[in-house]
Design brief:
Helices cover 50% and strands 19% of the residues. With 116 residues, it is α+β, with helices and mostly antiparallel strands. It has a three-stranded antiparallel beta sheet with strand order 1-2-3, with helices on both faces. Strand 2 and strand 3 form a beta hairpin. The longest helix is centred in the last third of the chain and has 29 residues. It starts with a helix and ends in a 5-residue tail after the last helix.
Length: 116
């Protein structure tokens, strides 16, 4: 039993490290219907599926920043109303997410006596 708990802990730490290693910001537009759960939260997996199948939701932009600072960015070539404003919002969200990531890592580092 202890080995199983330890394995789960190690897996959980690995997943958290993988999640912290990359930063992803994705911007959608469209009409949400089935993607909103009864409690008002967005079901992101359904939203991504809807966007992939053309179900009234469009992927406007997606950016992935990797630990080595490589960046992959996608922007739709479709004529989407308000696209320029959404791309500005996407860039601002990416900047805010990166700043939040750095602040979080500094907090964690300082809690274990490291300085970043």
């Amino acid at each position: 039993m202890a080995d199983n708990s330890f394995s789960k802990l190690i897996q959980s730490i690995k997943e958290a490290a993988d999640d912290l290693a990359t930063l992803e910001v994705t911007t959608f537009t469209g009409t949400l219907t089935a993607e909103v759960a009864p409690h008002g939260k967005i079901d992101w997996s359904k939203l991504r599926q809807t966007a992939a199948t053309g179900g009234g939701v469009t992927l406007v932009a997606s950016t992935m920043v990797f630990p080595d600072h490589d960046v992959e960015t996608y922007q739709t070539s479709l004529a989407v109303p308000g696209k320029e404003e959404m791309l500005v919002a996407h860039a601002l969200t990416l900047k805010a997410a990166a700043e939040a990531r750095v602040a979080f890592l500094r907090l964690v580092a300082s809690s274990v006596g490291l300085a970043l």
